[in-house]
């Protein structure tokens, strides 16, 4: 086998002569990019929805760690890294993101044109599929490990959405968090009651511009 190259940031190994492997090596880093996206949204938007989704994502990672330590099933190629391979953490991560994100987008976000939602939904599931494929193609997991990770992430994404929306929100726990002085100090808010957030914010911006003019 030819010597494998490694992306220095995360040590994703791939065959440098394989152009598809080169592309997939970057696509497989999507979870890292998504975590950066979480942090950016939470800091800039200060919405409780971003925080609860990130918490769910981290709990999902904890479940993956527990399952791997319990099952102790090795990766298909030991030379690609330490740790167990069942279930795939990347697959579990990205499918939690796709399932929870699609449910929240469908139920809580309103836009002027439905096609906008559909494009985002297709993109999320397409990314999930490609990330899973990258884990198999690059040799980090076999098909069964990826399917297992995808199933666990999907199921937990659905359960987390139901827990929040039919549990914590309904019981008023989220509102209690928002009413806490610390939440008020950092301007945490829940924008779900706004019919179309993008339109509403644009109208607020227009009003402010008129006042300054």
UniProtKB/TrEMBL annotation:
Keywords: Endoplasmic reticulum, Hydrolase, Membrane, Transmembrane, Transmembrane helix. Its main location: endoplasmic reticulum. It is a multi-pass membrane protein. The chain crosses the membrane at residues 20-41, 87-106, 118-137, 143-161. It is found in: Endoplasmic reticulum membrane; Membrane. One of its GO terms (molecular function) is dolichyldiphosphatase activity. GO terms for cellular component: endoplasmic reticulum membrane. Residues 48-161 form the Phosphatidic acid phosphatase type 2/haloperoxidase domain. The keyword Endoplasmic reticulum applies. Signal peptide: none annotated. Its EC number is 3.6.1.43. Pathway: Protein modification; protein glycosylation. InterPro entries: Dolichyldiphosphatase_PAP2, PAP2/HPO, PAP2/HPO_sf. The keyword Transmembrane applies. It catalyses: a di-trans,poly-cis-dolichyl diphosphate + H2O = a di-trans,poly-cis-dolichyl phosphate + phosphate + H(+). GO terms for biological process: lipid biosynthetic process; protein N-linked glycosylation. Required for efficient N-glycosylation. Necessary for maintaining optimal levels of dolichol-linked oligosaccharides. Hydrolyzes dolichyl pyrophosphate at a very high rate and dolichyl monophosphate at a much lower rate. Does not act on phosphatidate. Belongs to the dolichyldiphosphatase family. This is Dolichyldiphosphatase. It comes from Circinella minor.
């Amino acid at each position: 086998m030819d010597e494998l190259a490694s992306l220095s940031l995360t040590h994703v190994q791939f065959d440098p002569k394989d152009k598809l492997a080169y592309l997939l090596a970057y696509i497989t880093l999507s979870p890292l990019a998504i975590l950066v996206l979480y942090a950016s949204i939470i800091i800039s938007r200060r919405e409780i929805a971003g925080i609860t989704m990130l918490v769910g994502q981290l709990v999902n990672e904890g479940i993956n760690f527990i399952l791997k330590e319990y099952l102790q099933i090795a990766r298909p190629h030991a030379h690609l890294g330490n740790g167990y391979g069942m279930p795939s953490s990347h697959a579990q991560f990205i499918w939690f993101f796709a399932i929870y994100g699609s449910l929240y987008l469908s139920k809580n976000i309103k836009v002027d044109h439905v096609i906008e939602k559909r494009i985002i939904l297709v993109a999320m599931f397409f990314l999930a599929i490609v990330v899973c494929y990258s884990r198999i193609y690059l040799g980090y997991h076999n098909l069964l490990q990826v399917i297992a990770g995808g199933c666990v992430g999907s199921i937990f994404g659905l359960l987390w959405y139901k827990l929040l929306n039919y549990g914590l929100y309904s019981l008023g726990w989220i509102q209690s968090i928002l009413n806490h002085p610390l939440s008020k100090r950092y301007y945490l808010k829940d924008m779900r009651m706004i019919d179309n957030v993008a339109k509403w914010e644009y109208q607020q911006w227009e009003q402010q511009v008129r006042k300054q003019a």
